[in-house]
Specification:
This protein is an alpha/beta fold and 328 residues long. 46% of the residues lie in helices and 19% in strands. The protein has a 6-stranded mixed β-sheet with strand order 7-6-8-5-9-11, sandwiched between helices.
């Protein structure tokens, strides 16, 4: 009996040591809270966890929330600035109200293709713009993972060859003036709507179409409630994988280097998967009964660029930056 009592006492003593030790180890970890609008089953979620979350290692506690369950689309930046959120994969137009000069990176037909986009970002041409984001929006852009080239995806069988063919079409675009202007410049009637509501809106006819990269059309099953994909290629879409400046400044130089390394890791992994899927999905959509075709790209590009030239949106573009981008 005494032996059992001694054993029990030893277990209690051991527990009293182990539990505080575990708590201390957990407390030493750097917690990073991340919010995203893409759903739990999206490829981007899986790639983020593998290439960024696991890459961070045992020193960090990465908590990621998806499907806009933590913060609604478009509210992440404010949450980061208020200290309620550490990281998000932001769209460039999320910065527009506070840093109007960033609107140039959301302009349709800014990049010729994926390779051109990557050359521009690697050239240093956008460094001043990234510094301005840090100064005014108080977030640091770590990388810009490619999420695909945006195309039009519509209900009905009306052939869309030029911007004039989009007259009266209710085209869902993300909220925000910059996004709405993209839809208008394309020739459509832009309708602001949260990403999570798009499938139902297409199903009920509240909207006539939406624009997203092909992998997103597949993952969100938009092909089930639409009839055609028009390969306008109007935006080489990339998000800004960002961290709040307050969180960034709280990290040690070694921790900062690790977070930066893992963010680039995420960018490279998502780029590779996105490009591979884009090369495969046209055939998939055709098999699902959708018509997939290329319109008059020059007509779209000329119409869109003329719309920007005549708008207030181009007034905020940094002097000479469009020429640097075109020169790459």
């Amino acid at each position: 009996m005494q032996a059992l009592l001694k054993l029990a006492a030893g277990c209690v003593a051991l527990t009293s040591v182990v539990l505080p030790l575990k708590a201390a180890l957990a407390a030493d970890k750097v917690e990073i809270v991340y919010s995203d609008t893409v759903p739990e089953n999206d490829d981007r979620t899986k790639i983020l966890r593998e290439s960024f979350g696991k890459c961070l290692g045992d020193e960090f506690n990465f908590k990621d929330y998806h499907g806009a369950t933590l913060f609604k689309q478009g509210t992440e930046l404010t949450a980061m600035q208020r200290g309620n959120l550490d990281m998000a994969n932001l769209a460039i137009y999320d910065f527009y109200n506070q840093v109007p000069s960033t609107g140039i990176l959301g302009a349709a037909y800014l990049y010729r293709d994926y390779d051109h986009m990557r050359k521009v970002w690697a050239s240093g041409a956008l460094d001043d713009l990234m510094k301005e984001i840090e100064e005014k929006a108080k977030v640091k852009v770590l990388s810009n993972p490619y999420i695909g080239t945006r195309h039009l995806n519509l209900k009905g069988d009306k052939k869309i060859m030029t911007p004039a063919d989009l007259a009266g079409v209710k085209l869902r675009m993300p909220g925000g003036e910059g996004w709405q202007f993209v839809g208008e410049a394309l020739g459509a009637n832009p309708t602001p709507m949260a990403f999570t509501e798009v499938y139902t809106a297409l199903q009920t006819g509240a909207i006539d179409g939406q624009d997203n990269p092909l992998p997103t059309d597949k993952d969100m099953k938009f092909y089930e409630v639409t009839d055609q994909i028009i390969l306008t290629g109007h935006l080489i879409a990339n998000n800004q994988h960002s961290i709040s400046l307050s969180k960034w400044n709280s990290l040690t130089p070694a921790q900062q280097a690790k977070v930066q390394e893992c963010s680039i890791n995420f960018q490279k992994a998502l780029d590779a998967v996105t490009r591979k899927r884009e090369g495969e999905l046209v055939d998939f959509f055709k098999e699902q009964g959708l018509e997939v075709y290329t319109p008059d790209i020059d007509a779209f590009r000329n119409h869109v660029l003329a719309a920007y030239a005549d708008s207030r949106f181009s007034e905020d573009w940094p002097a000479g930056l469009i020429d640097k981008i075109n020169a790459e």
